[in-house]
Amino acid sequence: MLVILQARTASSRLPGKIFHTFFGEPIISRMLKIAKEFTSSENIILTTGSSPRDDYLSQIASDSGISVIRDDEDNVLKRFYIAAKDNTSDYIMRITCDNYLVQPRLLGAMHRECIQKNADYCYVAPLSHFAGEIIRRDLIIEEYKSNYSQMAKEHVTYEIRARTDIRILELPDNFMLINHRKRITLDNLDDLLFLKTLEAKNQNCSQVDCLEELINLTIN
Question: Residues 78-93, buried b or exposed e (16+ Cβ, 10 A)?
């Protein structure tokens, strides 16, 4: 399994959001730890933009022992293609770095379900903020070489999810007892204010593996 993290410094709603801190640690550093909890460093790639404003982000990943691929910051699918084309893994785990409560145990359970069901694409409904997406590597390559849409360019799996000729595994919105319909991410100022409230009230969330705390947080 190749894990691809996607992040960039530019953000129209909350610029530099991945450098905001959660329990004193930049979000990007936390996301790298989450990926390392799931797999070893050599199986992780950070994809980001090629502009100078992403230099610091790239340096953080490199200093953590993570490979970095840089290209067009507005074409996420292209960056995934570059990461995938010379890799030999059957599957890719896609993780967006604004989802700071992604759970390593949840990623592991998804992986097992995907392998067991021989799925081509696997996700937790409705595109959970606490998990990633798993895609066959060949599908990423195929998608990039197709006449893909602007939505696929930005969101990678947009058209893959709509295909009827592949095996899609949709895990339920209560997978592993989490309410995956709960929205906890870092996209705008309101999200940042919620993050700081969460930080003050839920000390157990300081650990990257805080599954039990997240279950309680999302069902209440």
Answer: bbbbbbbeebeeebbb
